[in-house]
Amino acid sequence: MPKGITEGVVDDVAKGNGAVGEAAVNGSNGEAPAARAAPKDDDPVETKEWLDALDSLIQTRGEERARFVLTELKHHANVCGVHVPFSANTPYINTIPVSKQPLFPGNRDVERRLKSLVRWNAMAMVVKANKMDGTIGGHIATFASSATLYEVGFNHFFHGPDHPDGPDQVYFQGHASPGIYARAFLEGRLGEDKLLHFRQELAPGGGLSSYPHPWLMPEFWQFPTVSMGLGPIMAIYQARFSRYLEHRGLAKTAGQHVWCFMGDGECDEPESLGALTLASREGLDNLIFVVNCNLQRLDGPVRGNGKIIQELEAAFRGAGWKCIKVLWGGDWDILLERDRTGLLVKRMGEVVDGEFQKYTVAGGAYFREHFFGKYPELLKLVEHMTDEHLDRLKRGGHDPEKVYAAFKAAVEHKGRPTVILAHTVKGYGLGEAGEGKNVAHQVKKMDAKNFIEFRNRFGLAVPDEAASKAALYKPPEASEEIQYLKKHREALGGPQPSRRVQCPTLQAPGEDFVKAYAAGSGDKKPSTTGVFVDILARLLRDPNLGKWVVPIVPDEARTFGMDPFFAKYKIYSNVGQLYEPVDAEFQQAAYREAKNGQLLEEGITEAGSMSSFIAAGTAYATHGVPTIPFYIYYSMFGFQRIGDLIWAAADMRTRGFLLGATAGRTTLNGEGLQHEDGHSHLLAATVPTIAAYDPAMAFELALVIRDGIRRMYQEGRDDVFYYITLYNDNYPMLPMPEGSAEGVLKGLYKLRPAANAKAKTPRPQLFGSGPILPHALRAQELLAEHFGVAADVWSATSYKELRREALEVERWNLLHPTEKPRRSYVQTLLAKEEGPFIAASDYMRAAPEMIARWVPGGLFVLGTDGFGRSETRAALRRFFEVDSECIAVAALHQLAQRGALKPEVVQQAIRKFDVNPEKISPMRA
Q: What is the pTM of this model?
């Protein structure tokens, strides 16, 4: 590239061409597209004249004029039929040239010593843990490669919680956690005892979690970033939610940045790059990705036969991001300046990543022969350098001046997000123990020789004996290093990472909120989805709660009946609405967008919607604002599709409400197995901090939501979130029985006792949930009308809550053998009931079976095991054997099993209700 032509000029000329396919393909074999695709120059003199003219234009008129001229030339060429080949790649050199590099503001010597201390302690803590117990595990190589990236951030950029602009949100790469702990040790935030108990969280006084985990270290970590791939998408939506808070006047976030540190191998996760266009479309210049491109996955090269940095550059630039490449350390600047042939840049673009990895471990002589040796001119260029000197040429991600320049450019850039692609070496500094080797990620143990070698390489003042044992080392408090570290963090607003919960409480709705639904619906037949929309409207109108409510929907607001919210509360857009919607004449439901809009209408992205839910549900800790997210979606596309993000929400102590609408395997009729959910309550049961409910009646839904707001936002004692299933089945909503509120919240209560109290047979107890509860009520009538059997009907609102409480009681009894045994709620509630007990729901049998062992005499369960079908609700419920008639037959069968009825009565019921005993089992296909 001719001297003077910057990446910014080329970038702006290419801006607007979003195609990345050609660039991605061209980058796949390792060479920069320009290095391979350029035709032979048959008139070098003329070419030089053009390049000289451009150099002169830049020098005399500046970059803006050069951009304008190049853009006009490109347009004119297209008009003339000369189409300029598109490439999303720039040459394989640093984006910021030396001439544009700012002065480094820190003390290089002190910062180098600090970085070396952090490196040492990060390595030592992992090694010592694995000497104590070889099964502990842990990772050294990731932080070893990214230490410079983090140290520059800690010393000069990351705002802490006391900064005047508020804190930055930093998503630390999960595998780099030992380095973050090691720095906190130098800061005095973590004691030596903590570091000596890395990955031993049950040690006396507690240890350190393996990865960022806000539950296990609630005042330290904010964001869980393992599983890999989740950090990037959560960071994007965190940055967008920060803007949402600012635009709605809920928090001042304009001076804050969201930093996301990730690995190049992590970018293979679909979530890592899946929302890039949202960030550029929203103009999120508060968002900075830092990709640690050490060219290695866990087992080997990320792109051994290609160039991952060029591939990522094409993806990010094509998505509209500002891309800054930090590839070569300062030692390379002189070589690039001396090279008048352009062959050095060409060679940089030719070499594939697998070969760069080989150069790291093979030594200077190999590097000279295989990198520079391809062209005699390049060998001449480095003939004055020794092999040792060549071996010490740094990658850009290990040069603090290059990294500082990139970070500074990123925080100052306006209008779009920035990605920094930093070329590093995995396991940098580990030497023979793993530097640059495929085994680097698995290195957890080192011998004394490696420690001494590490100590010498980084000039640490650690005595030989301590070094050979990998002892932790911290300079005295008055040392230059510790004072420097603390001074810089104080200037930046305090510690990072740091999680502080300083958030006002909210008042939950009063009794009137539930009374509105306690009388039932009379002759009307609403669905629970419709009831929820009415509840949400009440909350949005509430003078104390309304502004904090954050409705979130992927792209089904009209399906759920939420379109009236468009006009009144508006859909959030960072630019407002720049068009007149086609339905503008429909004032009550027109599609309205606004910069201060309250509704987050996310489009068809459950992962993105869940990331918004997480951002809103953790704002009480991140921003100190009590936003209440209500995320409604097709229930099949929650736990099944994005369960990892739901687990991350639990890790982050998220609060809020997940509403799984169009739920049930038989209720969403006609959609087939792709949409019909009969298992989300089982999946919800695996997440410790979820309170899961399957309400059937309007008052049940109102009680659960009110109590959730009380627990999460009024008392603030429970960092839980709720999963509530909603249905599009229309039936009458019954009045609220007196004294049933406790049972609704605990998970089970008697809804309608039998009318005939003098029946001769034992009294079956019928449990119903969701839209199957009306079928249990009808079964009660069928049993009384046709067989003289009296049955009670119960509403089972939460098998998960019943099971959780019963397990707690069971554990207490186990550990207190000499004290009077306690009884769980479900045992106490059912102790005097005759039985048998029959449960029916629109979910797999395993859901009600969660409480079977605490039910007197056991629980007989009907459910929807198997694939869904496209059919009517009536046909589906008969197919899965959960309709009224099948519930009645099940009750008679259980009575016969107890000897209370003859088997012939059951056979009579099967014939009477036209139940086909020979049909295919729904569990088989």
A: 0.92
